[in-house]
Every structure is written in C-alpha cells, then in structure tokens.
Amino acid sequence: MFISKRLLLIIGILVVVVMLAAGIGLAYAFSALGQQSATNANISATVTASALASPTPGNGQRRVTGVIKSLDNQSFVLAANQGKRMITVEVDAQTKYVRRGKSASFSDLQPGETVVVLGTYDASSKTMTATRVTMASSTSTPTPSPTAAP
Fold first, then answer.
1. How far is residue 95's CA from residue 130's CA, in Å, rounded to a whole number?
2. Of 34, 41, 85, 118, which has the highest C-beta tally within 10 A?
3. Whether residue 42 is found in the same domain as residue 66
C-alpha cells in the first residue's frame, strides 16, 4: 500500500503546523510563569515574609516595603521599590511599632533598616501616615573570637 507523495507532503506540513502551534503555546505559558516567578523572587529576596509579617491593608490603607534612608522627629524617609521611589512616612501617637512580633517604639528605628509600613498614602505629596510599622528582625553578624595559636 503506497501513499502518494502529495499526501505525505500534506501530512508533513500539518505535523509541522501543529508542532509550531504547540511550541508557541508552551513558550507563552512558560514566559508568563517565568515573569511571575521573577516578580515573586524579587519580593522574597528583598524581604522575608516571616521577618516582616504584617496585617493585610484595609479601609483605603496601603502597605509599602522599603529601607529607611533618614529619620526626623516624627517622620522618616523610606526608599521603596528598590530605591526608585522616596516616601516621607509620618507617625503619630497611634502608630504601632512591631519587631519580631513584639511591641517596639519609634526610637528603635534605624537608617538602613528594612520596614513594612501600613497606612494611608497621599500620592500628591508623596507622604504616608503610618498606622503600623513592622521592622525587620535585626540579624547580628557574629563577632570573631580570638583563637589560641597551637
């Protein structure tokens, strides 16, 4: 039983078209998955969830993660979005401070420290009124101990 060359050519072209469509579909699916994974990796590389667990924003509040650039009397400047955006965070007597799940205070904040701020954001003035500031757990670097020479 012979199959004509014309039929073989048509079957070959159909196989190539189906494989091409499947390849494009898989490439698109992996591309979208890769972008989502890269976004999640950037977030988790910047701040670990266990170190900065904070409640979900509600009632028009926003959550911003960043590094403290400078401290003032009742405010601080926060570098968010990997330093691409500066936000002035204002605090008041009702602002709650948390470090490692325990209560803290404004005086515990330090420049260079990563924090998650929950509060209301005013885009026109680029200021945020904080209701809660969650500080990263401080990781101290071990101090080398002197060793005796043998």
1. 6
2. 118
3. no
Q: To the nearest 10°, the Cα dihedral for 143, 114, 78, 60?
A: -160
Q: Which amino acid is at 33?
A: L
66 and 125 share a domain? yes
Exposed e or buried b for every residue in 39-69, given b needs 16+ CB within 10 A? eeeeeeeebeeebbebeebeeebebbbbbbe
pLDDT in tens, 75-120: 999 998 877 889 999 999 999 999 988 999 999 999 999 999 999 9
User: Nearest Cα to 99, choosing from 108, 112, 88?
Assistant: 108
> 82 is in which domain, residue-wise?
62-135
